């Protein structure tokens, strides 16, 4: 009996060691795999049958682990592709909106620039004629009524030009951008909003600071920063935004500093879609676009909270050595016609424009300069007069109603009067001219954007006459 009991215990021990324990290990490993732990492996087994099962199990676990790694990598690739697709879609939507806005503004600019050209030209002519009248009343009227009218007409003109400049799709190639000019465009578009909200917009930027970048994207950077600052000032009862620019080694450091509530989390300020604004007040893309554009320029941008309170954004861009002219003009000084030698006197001019006010303005200016002036309200009428009479110079609008416009007139001149091509000035309400026929026959100095001042008009004519 003792031997039987001992044998039974020994058999039970062998059975447990070679069958029960391996089965328990297999069950435990299967549960671990089922729970997601694919790194579990079965130890080597002495029994050939269980050794084969353990080997198959381990291979299965390894295959599952490898497949999970592959799935994880593919998921990461898909997430990156989805993010890229989302970003690209956002860029396309923004570019489409920008393109539509540019087309709308181009047409609007032409319609606005014609009446603004008439207002500016007539008010400047009135200022000149009042200046010739004796007595203090004429001088006072000129100073208190006419010159402010001239100033406001120029301001309206600059606003339209800034809108067109900002809305036009930018060139993707980097070049040289003028910081002061880009800030002037942004300020021209946003200073009215700051003023109406009772906030101060202070700018201390030296002229002709040149950096590596693209002008229109740099304008958009400044616009976005101004918009963000104004929203913060209104939300936190701040009072001012100050913009400064200084040289820092080989870089230019541009600082936007306000006294608003500051950033809730400066480290996340440039994250896409991150915003602390109230619902409907922003998309969270403004500062992310700032980061994108500045990075494309090869620069850096950082956000922080100033020790004294408020937000501080610092942009560093590579400085470009050289010189550039500023597009800003002195708007406080009265226009002084005829800055260049008068070559207009005694010349016979044909002025072509479908706007009666602009025809009248140009005729009056040229008559005061001593020219003989004939006018035509359309390209067809101009062609008839050119066929019958001789003229020394032609000034024409480009976009005119009827069967022919300024482009058709230039085509006719190139065929019938090729010697007159150098004696043509085209005035236009559009910011840019891309028509192949015009750019083939004329140079850039033969285009003048409406509305123009008397000085700009006469100086351009004198320049072209000196080279004809």
Unreliable stretches covering 5 or more consecutive residues: 277-284, 323-339
* Fraction of residues in helix: 40-55%
What is the N-to-C order of secondary-structure elements (H for helix, E for strand)? HHHEHEEHEEHEEEHEHEHEHEH
Q: Which structural class is indicated by helix and strand composition?
A: alpha/beta
Average pLDDT works out at 79
Shape: elongated
Number of strands: 12
> What proportion strand?
5-15%
Number of helices: 11
Distance between the termini: 134 Å
Give the biggest beta sheet.
5 strands, mixed
Provide the fold topology.
Layout: H1 2-34, H2 48-131, H3 136-167, E1 175-178, H4 179-196, E2 200-204, E3 210-213, H5 215-236, E4 240-248, E5 251-258, H6 286-296, E6 300-305, E7 311-318, E8 348-352, H7 356-368, E9 372-376, H8 379-388, E10 393-397, H9 406-416, E11 424-428, H10 436-441, E12 447-449, H11 454-467
Parallel strand pairs: 2-4, 8-9, 8-10, 10-11, 11-12
Antiparallel strand pairs: 1-3, 4-5, 5-7, 6-7
Helix pairs in contact: 1-2, 2-3, 2-7, 3-4, 4-5, 5-6, 8-9
Descriptive report:
- This protein is α/β, with parallel strands linked by helices and 468 residues long.
- The chain is built from eleven helices and twelve strands.
- It has helices at 2-34, 48-131, 136-167, 179-196, 215-236, 286-296, 356-368, 379-388, 406-416, 436-441, 454-467; strands at residues 175-178, 200-204, 210-213, 240-248, 251-258, 300-305, 311-318, 348-352, 372-376, 393-397, 424-428, 447-449.
- Helix 4 (179-196) runs parallel beside helix 5 (215-236) and helix 5 (215-236) runs antiparallel to helix 6 (286-296).
- It is elongated.
- The model is unreliable at 277-284 and 323-339 (pLDDT under 50).
């Amino acid at each position: 009996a003792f031997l039987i009991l001992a044998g039974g215990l020994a058999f039970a021990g062998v059975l447990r060691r070679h069958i029960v324990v391996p089965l328990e290990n297999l069950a435990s490993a299967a549960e671990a795999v089922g729970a997601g732990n694919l790194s579990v492996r079965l130890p080597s087994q002495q029994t050939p049958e269980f050794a084969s099962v353990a080997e198959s199990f381990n291979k299965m676990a390894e295959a599952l682990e490898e497949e999970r790694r592959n799935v994880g990598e593919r998921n990461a690739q898909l997430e990156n592709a989805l993010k890229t697709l989302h970003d690209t879609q956002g860029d396309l939507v923004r570019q489409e909106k920008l393109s539509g806005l540019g087309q709308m503004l181009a047409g609007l600019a032409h319609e606005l620039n014609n009446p603004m050209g008439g207002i500016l030209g007539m008010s400047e002519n009135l200022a000149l004629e009042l200046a010739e009248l004796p007595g203090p009343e004429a001088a006072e009227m000129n100073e208190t009524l006419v010159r402010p009218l001239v100033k406001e007409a120029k301001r309206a003109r600059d606003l339209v030009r800034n809108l067109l400049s900002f809305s036009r799709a930018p060139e993707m190639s980097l070049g040289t951008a003028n910081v002061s000019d880009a800030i002037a465009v942004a300020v021209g578009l946003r200073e009215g909003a700051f003023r109406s909200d009772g906030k101060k917009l202070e700018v201390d930027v030296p002229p002709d600071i040149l950096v590596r970048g693209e002008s229109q994207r740099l304008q958009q950077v400044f616009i976005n920063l101004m918009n963000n600052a104004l929203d913060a000032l209104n939300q936190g009862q701040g009072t001012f935004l100050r913009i400064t620019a200084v040289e820092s080694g080989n870089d230019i450091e541009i600082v936007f500093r306000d006294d608003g509530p500051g950033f809730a989390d400066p480290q996340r300020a440039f994250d896409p879609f991150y915003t602390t604004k109230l619902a409907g007040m922003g998309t969270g893309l403004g500062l992310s676009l700032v980061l994108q554009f500045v990075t494309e320029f090869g620069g850096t941008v950082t956000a922080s909270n100033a020790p004294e309170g408020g937000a501080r954004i610092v942009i560093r861009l590579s400085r470009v050595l050289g010189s550039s002219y500023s597009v800003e003009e002195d708007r406080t000084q009265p226009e002084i016609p005829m800055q260049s030698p008068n070559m207009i006197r005694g010349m016979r001019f044909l002025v072509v424009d479908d706007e009666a006010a602009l025809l009248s303005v140009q005729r009056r200016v040229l008559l005061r300069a001593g020219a003989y002036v004939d006018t035509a309200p359309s390209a067809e009428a101009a062609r008839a007069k050119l066929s019958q009479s001789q003229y020394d110079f032609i000034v024409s609008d480009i976009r005119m109603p009827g069967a022919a416009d300024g482009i058709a007139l230039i085509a006719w001149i190139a065929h019938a009067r090729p010697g007159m091509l150098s004696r043509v000035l085209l005035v236009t309400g559009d910011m840019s001219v891309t028509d192949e026929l015009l750019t083939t026959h004329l140079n850039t100095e033969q285009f003048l954007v409406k509305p123009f001042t008397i000085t700009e008009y006469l100086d351009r004519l004198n320049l072209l006459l000196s080279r004809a």
